[in-house]
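Subject: sequence -> structure tokens, single chain

Hey, anyone have a minute? Need the predicted structure for the following. Not urgent.
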Amino acid sequence: MSKYPISKQFGMFSRFTPPWNRAAFSLASVLLKCVPKHARGVTIKKFKAEGVPLTVMLPKCNTGHAKLPCLVYFHGGGMVFRAAPYHYRNAAIYAREAGCAVVMLDYHLAYKCGYPAAHEDCLSALRWTVQNAARLNIDSSRIAVGGDSAGGLLAADIARAEGAHFLFLVYPVLDRRCGTHTMRTYTDTPMWNAALNKEMWQLYLAGNSDYVSPAECDAGALPDAYIETAEFDCLK
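Reply:
Had a minute. Here:
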């Protein structure tokens, strides 16, 4: 039993901490690739941007006349896990309820390729979306980038490097220094904690000392953002 009163709606994740080794990453990658992705109420199209697989979700309610706003979304998973079914389910909800297009991608994972591989994949996805806006009936003046957890880090970095009209961040990883109050407090929480967070940064950056994380930069360089946090979370 966890000492933290985490909601039961999180199921096993309220007690589970993922194993952190390459064998576990590889096994999870295979399993997640095979698990059905439930994305109801949207039309799904598959593309590639410079070899990066893209999933584009379009709301079925769209008549095809009005141009859609778009969210280019980067999934979480500590930079080492593929998108899980709940990522696709949430993306479908965003597309359906907000009436927008959602572009997701399978970026390179850090245990195979460290920085900047995933970053460059995400840049390619955003640039592809802008270039193909007319093809997808997207309003190129209303393209946001977003992500959860590690995906939030990618989104903030992409918005800083390439520009975007809005940021959508769900409990994002933003600070490689790992010195905040919640990093010192939540060292043993289930699913994610400060110890795992430090290991993620070490694996992702692979000794790259030139990288500067979003929290170390002037926030004025970023677009307006919606930021959602979790209660018992080292990232808060």
